[in-house]
Amino acid sequence: MTAPWEHSVRPDGSPPVNGYGHAVDSTGAMVAVSGQVPVDGDGNAVGQEDDEYREAEKPPACFSVRVAGLVRPDFRAEADALAAAPSAG
Question: Do 27 and 2 contact (CB within 8 A), yes or no?
């Protein structure tokens, strides 16, 4: 099975980056996930004191926007995503 992601952390001629990759390409089917906030199945905010995780060798391509606040003050972040299924070959 072929890996669905190709990480382009810093393609030739690109400026330096800190903590993200310039692009991540997919070879499989794509799925888009709309913005999600950190709540459990009952709508309670979760994760306010969690540690962070990031795989330094494969940083994600990311998009950041600073806003004055989300819909609830206890929401620290909202995330959206693109996902890829591996090729079937």
Answer: yes
